[in-house]
Design goal:
Layout: E1 2-6, H1 7-18, E2 32-38, E3 41-47, E4 51-58, E5 60-63, E6 65-70, H2 71-80, E7 85-89, E8 97-101, E9 104-108, E10 110-111, E11 126-131, H3 132-142, E12 157-162, E13 167-172, E14 176-182, E15 186-188, E16 193-198, H4 199-207, E17 215-220, E18 224-228, E19 232-237, E20 256-261, H5 262-276, E21 284-289, E22 293-300, E23 304-316, E24 321-324, H6 325-334, E25 339-344, E26 351-355, E27 361-365
Antiparallel strand pairs: 1-5, 1-7, 2-3, 2-6, 3-4, 4-19, 6-10, 7-8, 8-9, 11-15, 11-17, 12-13, 12-16, 13-14, 14-27, 17-18, 18-19, 20-23, 20-25, 21-22, 21-24, 22-23, 25-26, 26-27
Helix pairs in contact: 1-2, 3-4, 5-6
Length: about 375
Amino acid sequence: MEFSCSRGELLEAVNAVSRAVSSRATIPILSGIYMEALDDVLRLVATDMELGIEYTIPVKTVQTGSTVVNARIFNEMARRLPEGPITFYISGETPALKVRYHGSELTLNTMNPQEFPLLPAILDGDHLILTQGQFKEMTRLVCFAASTDESRPWFTGVLWDISPEEVRWVATDTHRLALLSGQATESVIQQNRQVILHAKTLSDVARLLSDDEASLQITITRSQALLETDRMRVILRIIEGQYPKYQQVIPRDYKTRMTVSVKALADSVDRASLAAIGKEGSNIIKLSSDKNTLTIRANSPEVGHIYEEVFVDVNGDPIPIAFNYRYLQDALKVITTDDVYMDLTATLAPGVLRPVGEERYLYLIVPVRTV
């Protein structure tokens, strides 16, 4: 095997596939990155058997071949190589990979490429095409609401509620829920279906996408999902389990709607959080309103008391309510409209945030009982 490539493109590919390498791999071959040079294309593959990533870059191939190198060492090497062309080759009977650059050379130990579990070809299944921008928006607005508790794996994922008309993405940790609706650029769906994909993995994939207008092709089978761009293939395992009927917890109407500036509310919540953090970790802020003012209070025996006023437009009767400030803060960080609706139905019923002028998104917060 022998090929030459640029450091920049190599580093981009290595960074991408390294996200699929487990730091706790019990099978030695899974700690490696598979490399194959063929037809002036270098294919890199890594997998932990739950997630697999394949990435291709253009190279100048002198001799075709394949090998497997330790992912951690190869990643560090790629970072430290100088700019400019780099040549990789394996010669003779020794399987070591030699790397030549600027008159210098290093040698890396390798593993048997025949032992590496390559990603399967996935052809059959339901097909969707999204823009990469849509996918990145989904991960930004939804994934943060998923749980990190692996004992209930379905809550660590994002539900894809798919129909021919639209896709709904939902995440919840049972304390809050985020929902975004959108339409695929193209879809071939045999019937309505729901699948759960790990939220953290989706966020990792989004970081690898750069062209918001480019297509992201998605194929969903019974047990796996395949995400494809022009250079990358990602295979994710579908999380097994029954996702809760999220529609039942979203209030169909509201008794009070407050319209408030996102920045003003975020700044006040941020200041109020200083007095909401105590030894007990309650993180509670209390909200009440009149016609034009939203009052935010927080109290901690260790810190003190804070009282904030924010200008709002209130439609309906005042409803006092208390939230964990972190859940409110998380939503205000991702909402990009100038103003947001806060819809309330009762003191102990969930509150719902909806960006003004953006009907595709909502964020629900379960209130805290304070008495």
